[in-house]
Amino acid sequence: MGHYCFNTMKKIHIGHLIQEKFEERRQCDKTLTKASFARQINIHRSTLYLLFNQKSVDIELLIRISKVLNYNFIENVYFNKKNSNKKNRIFVGIEVDADLLQNINLPEEYLRLTYYVQNQ
Questions:
Q1: How many helices (H) and strands (E) does the chain have?
Q2: pLDDT tens by residue, 99-113
Q3: How far is CA 6 from the centre of its chain?
Q4: CB under 8 Å to 26, separation ≥6 — which residues?
Q5: pLDDT at residue 56 above 50?
């Protein structure tokens, strides 16, 4: 079973970033409430407050959040080439379903790497 994901050594508080992007999105979409956002990402409203304080988030939940907020957290945060220093990168693993992998719009070079690893 393969587990593949990318992260950088820089400190990322993903919960705070999700909250920031939620607030930005809410400025454009006045119908977006915390309750509606929680429903759309399939969590309870009270869990949303915990989410905003988490330093890490399950990848499947992060993909659902990305779709609702129209912001690709995986590409823009974890695969941000401008902010990543190659010497400070590490690879950590998670298992990702092939259908889910196709929906996160990874750069072609990461898809090739993932395909190579999956088919070994």
A1: 7, 2
A2: 766 676 666 655 555
A3: 11
A4: 32, 33
A5: yes
The H or E element spanning position 17 is helix 14-28
- Residue pair 11/66 in contact (Cβ under 8 Å)? The answer is no
Which residue has tokens 């790497």?
113
HSE-CB for 105 with a 13 A CA cutoff: 9
Contacts of 5 (CB under 8 A, 6+ apart): 59, 78, 91, 92, 93, 94, 96
- Encode pLDDT of 20-30 as tens digits: 999 999 999 98
- Pick the closest to residue 38 from 54, 28, 53, 50 (CA basis): 50
Mean pLDDT (whole number) for 14-39: 94
